[in-house]
Design brief:
Two copies of one chain form a homodimer.
Chain A: E1 5-6, E2 10-11, H1 15-22, H2 26-33, H3 41-54, H4 60-67, E3 72-77, H5 83-98, E4 102-107, H6 112-123, E5 129-133, H7 139-148, E6 152-155, E7 165-168, H8 171-184, E8 190-194, H9 201-216, E9 224-227, H10 232-245, E10 251-254, H11 257-270, E11 279-281, H12 287-291, E12 298-300, H13 303-318, E13 327-329, E14 333-335
Parallel strand pairs in A: 3-4, 3-5, 5-6, 6-7, 7-13, 8-9, 8-10, 10-11
Antiparallel strand pairs in A: 1-2, 12-14
The first copy, chain A, binds a DNA duplex through residues 4, 12, 14-16, 19, 24-31, 33-34, 38-40, 43, 58-68.
Pfam families (chains A, B): LacI, Peripla_BP_3
GO molecular function, one term (chains A, B): transcription cis-regulatory region binding
Organism (chains A, B): Microvirga aerophila
Chain lengths: 353, 353
DNA sequence: CTGTTAGCGCATTCAG
DNA sequence: CTGAATGCGCTAACAG
């Protein structure tokens, strides 16, 4: 039989079936499917009817091959289970789906080498564009992507030297501003809690922002950097390390909300008053940040919106529009809440060790 | 020129280029690429060398069309930003990537109608298998999927009537067991906090499990059901509603950790002692569940592992293995922690009013 | 073991 | 405006 089969025996109706049924050529069917204008209203109606009657669904694999364009966008994030990155993907899918484009996703596990492998594997599937998290990639990754000529967006940070485009915000500026704010509100010995187990540009830039702020204080503070695991447990550990290191520390700026919330909860267990004895700030504005007691001062970025914007730009590029700018800064916002001294509040004498 | 182009001018090397370079036929190159055994070691070496020299990367779109198999698996979850579902996807991608298969993902936003649309769109891309969240789908979705003949796994719950297969655990049993445990430990007036804004089978089964347990108590308790938004804020609201409804309520079984943690934090704000005045239990075992003070009694399921298992089964089915069972129960585990009365603890008189 | 041939289902010429 | 022809890059079947 001439019947094509899907997998194991289900007959799939092809464009030629529709054409025969509507008494037109395959090309004509293709034209109405793809909304080409040059087709008589009468013919269009006949074709559409045939499509409906036969339940025709275009085979996008075949279309992809013929049109040299898949309608698939590839995205690589560190871990799918992390809220921040998942939110970007959520925004991406929302607009992609509206536009008939689909998303292929991979998780690099914070490893540039793994990312490189995934990029290679994805390229073989000929996506129309790429989204990568962050700005740190292997040379091979950069080469592969540049050679492909595809639109590429690196997200969640900014950089002077993007592969193609970058859409994000300055983690450096955010780290610096938040540190400045803590100082302005009266915190005097501010330590930074970072993580080395998931090395990436965002974390590093936040650290550098903190250091930059330290160096500009009237009586320049020596940066105090504590390294922990990026988790609630890590944040709890940071409390122990900080107090052991220097009793004068009166604020912790944690590079992630995960650690910051862990720190707040540890203070609760230990009976350490936040923010009076110890101020705590985070980064990401996870849902738990505003729910925890006391609520957490942190950096907010609308990541779903960022994902939507990334999709918009990527789609426009795929449509052939030339890029206007290599960088889109979506900005960040400091959410000043109760875990740090806030406006009008005075710094009380803390009880000495 | 005969050169094929990727997008805009980048020459892509094809299988025929490799064939010519290695002095063999295209078919032979295809055989070595796909690991067919019937090829002389010497020829294989020549082909591999040519592949390397030319930097050949197979075009998987073309392969998909010719082989009638894409190496793509489609997954649909309610919201990508929710940790529980994202974890399943994480497990899925991990094993898929090892096996050269990729993942296409969509978010239904808890809407069966949206899910139906996505299923339709995905089918046009000819994935080799489907993963769906939960067991509630529109009739059209079920029809489409059955007609496709593709392996389909519904996850995160169990059902008697799967489209094809189901891999998950019994939300009903988990809800019932947890309620039983609360009663066993001395909680007497247990209310259930559910959510109606994201109607789904998992939430409903948890509620039914709760009701089932209530009806078996010595002096059968009338179920008390509180409806809130599925969020930290919703959990906080549940506290207010519960206390207003009946002061005798001494335990809240929340259908999600999100609400349970929100409830615990609200108790902290109101100075309500947990678990002595009010026991609180959740469901999902989010990372925050073990970090919050007091730590949350909840239901744990290893979702990353579940995702891996789903991938394994799906791949095996795609390889042609026939399915042995329509159901895989991955089980659940009660994590009894400090937010409820625990073993050996006695119920104290609670302060009235 | 290996070269050749014939599609996979569609978009896109190119004539008419 | 429309039908027929051509090929996207690859796999699979079939001879050799």
């Amino acid at each position: 039989m001439g019947d094509t089969t899907i997998r194991d025996g289900k007959a799939a109706v092809r464009i030629s079936d529709v054409a025969r049924h509507a008494n037109v050529g395959a090309g004509t069917v293709s034209r109405v499917i793809n909304g080409s204008q040059s087709v008589a209203p009468e013919t269009r109606k006949r074709v559409l009817a045939a499509v409906r009657e036969l339940g025709y669904v275009p085979n996008l694999v075949a279309r992809s091959l013929a049109a040299n364009r898949t309608g698939i966008i590839a995205a690589i994030i560190p871990v799918i289970g992390y809220t921040q990155h998942a939110q970007v993907i959520q925004g991406l899918t929302e607009v992609l789906h509206e536009r008939g484009t689909n998303l292929m996703i991979g998780a690099s596990g914070h490893s540039p080498e793994m990312e490189e492998k995934i990029v290679g594997a994805f390229l073989a599937r000929r996506p129309d564009a790429f989204y990568l998290t962050g700005t740190w990639h292997t040379d091979v990754t950069r080469e592969l992507l540049k050679a492909s000529g595809l639109p590429v967006i690196e997200g969640s940070n900014l950089t002077e030297t993007p592969i193609d485009m970058v859409v994000g915000y300055s983690n450096f500026a955010a780290g610096r501003e938040l540190t400045r704010l803590l100082a302005l509100r009266g915190h005097r010995h501010i330590a930074h809690v970072t993580t080395k187990y998931e090395p990436n540009d965002r974390i590093t830039d936040r650290l550098n922002g903190y250091k930059a702020a330290c160096s500009e204080f009237p009586r320049a503070q020596q940066p105090i950097v504590i390294e922990c695991e990026n988790s609630f447990e890590g944040g709890a550990e940071a409390i122990a390390l900080a107090l052991k290191f220097d009793q004068r520390i009166d604020a912790l700026f944690c590079a992630t909300d995960l650690m910051a919330v862990g720190a707040i909860l540890e203070c609760q267990r230990r009976g350490i008053e936040v923010p009076t004895r110890l101020g705590i700030a985070g980064f990401d504005d996870l849902p738990i940040a505003s729910a925890v007691v006391p609520s957490l001062t942190t950096i907010h970025v609308d990541r779903v919106e960022m994902g939507r914007k990334i999709a918009e730009v990527l789609l426009r590029r795929v449509e052939g529009e030339s890029l206007l700018s290599h960088e889109i800064d979506v900005g960040f916002e400091i959410k000043e809440r109760n875990s740090t001294f806030t406006k009008g509040e005075k710094r009380r004498n803390r009880s000495t060790g």
